[in-house]
Amino acid sequence: MKKIIALITTVALLSMVVFNFIPGVVANAANTSESNLTYKDVRGGFYFVGYENVQLEKGKTYKYKVSYEANVDMTMTDTITGQSSKAGLFIPSSSGAELTNTAVTRTQGNVMDVANDDSKTFTHTFEFTANEDTKADIGVFLGAGSVLPTTPEASLIWKNVTVVNETPAEAPTAPVINAEDKTIKQNETFNPLNEVTATDKKDGDITSAIRVTKNTVDTTKSGEYDVDYKVTNSSKITTLKSIKVTVTKEAATANAAPVINAKDQTIKVGDLFNSLKGVTATDKEDGDLTAKIKVTKDTVNNSKKGVYQVTYTVTDSGNLSATLTIKVTVTQDLTLIIEPIKLVESGTPSDPTTPKQTARNAETADVKASKIPKTGDNSMIWLVLAGLGLATVGITTYRKKANR
C-alpha cells in the first residue's frame, strides 16, 4: 500500500511540475526582447529555459543575464529541497553539455546551483567573446530535488525564471575605403581601381561595391588630378574618399649615335669589290640602320695593286651621324721566282777553266740577265714565258753538242 501511495505521489508531483511550471516560463519569455526564448522538457521533470541555437559571430562580445528562484518557503513536511540548476553556455541540442572554451572566451564559466532554505534565489551574468563562428544554447537547466514531499502542494518548484540578452546593440558603422595618393609617369597606364579596397565591420570585404564618381586623370600631360570614390554597406551607410594623382614628366633621354660595323678588306687584282657587302649599322633608339648606310668615299681600283680607302656614313632619327673609314688592299695574284740553272756534264766534275764550262757559265749569265717581271706587271708575263722557252731550247742544244 505504501508503494502505491508513493507512486501516486510521484505522478502527482510531476503533473504539478508540468502544468504549474510551464505557464510561468511562458510569461517570462514573453517579456524578453528576443522571440526565440524557449523551454523544453529534456527528460521527465528536467527543463531548459533560454535561447537555443544562438549564432555567435567571431570577434563579437555577448552578454546574457540568467535569474531563477526556487520555492523552498514551505515547511519541511510539504516542500521539495535540494532542487538543482545548471546555467551558462551549452552545446546545442544537448542535455547540458558545456560549450568548449576554444569556441568562446568567458568572463565566467557555467555554474551549478542547489536550492535550499538559505539559498533559493540565483542571478548570474555571462559575458563572453566568440573566438569563431559557432552556435550555442544560452540559459539554464532546472531539475527537481531528490527529496519528495509526503503531501504535494499545488505550487511551483522553480519560479521567476528569466534569461535576458543584455548584449549592447551595436550602432551601424561606416565602411572604410583604402586608397592612397599616387604618382605615375607621363603616358603610363592608369586604372583608378587598382590597389583600392573597401572593408566593413559587418559586411567584411565590399571592394566590389566601390564606385568611381570622378576621374580627371590625363596621363598624356603632367599635372595633379582628382579621383573620387564611394561605397555603401548593407546598412545603407555611404563612405566617400578622394585622392590626388600626380603625373610627372617623362624623363628626357640622350640620343645615342649609331654604330657602323665594317672591317678592313684584302682582295686580288681583278676581283670584284662590293663596298656595302658585309657592312651593317645599328642604333640604340632606331635599331637596324643598315639600309641607310651611304658610301661617301670609295677609291678602290681592283685592276691595280695598292691600298685604298672606303668611307661610310649613316644618320639616325635624332639626326646624329656616324662615319667609318676602312682600308681595302689590292694584291697581285701571281709571283714568279727563277733560280740560276747549273749545268754539269754527266760523270765529269765541273771545271770552270775548260772552254765547255765557260760556255755553260755564259749561258747561265744570260739567264740571270733575263728580265724578271715584277709583282703586279701583267704585261711582262708573256715575255717571261718566251724567255723560259728560249732558255730551254738553248740548254737542250748544248747538251747534244756536249755528248758528241
UniProtKB/TrEMBL annotation:
Cellular localization per UniProt: Secreted, Cell wall
Top-rank taxon: Bacteria
Keywords of this entry: Cell wall, Membrane, Peptidoglycan-anchor, Secreted, Signal, Transmembrane, Transmembrane helix
Ranges annotated as spanning the membrane: 380-398
Signal peptide location: 1-29
Polar residues bias (residue ranges): 347-361
Topology in the lipid bilayer: Peptidoglycan-anchor
Residue intervals of the Gram-positive cocci surface proteins LPxTG domain: 372-404
Annotated region described as Disordered, given as residue ranges: 345-366
Pfam families the UniProt entry points to: Bact_surface_Ig-like, Gram_pos_anchor
Record's protein name: DUF5011 domain-containing protein
Source species: Listeria swaminathanii
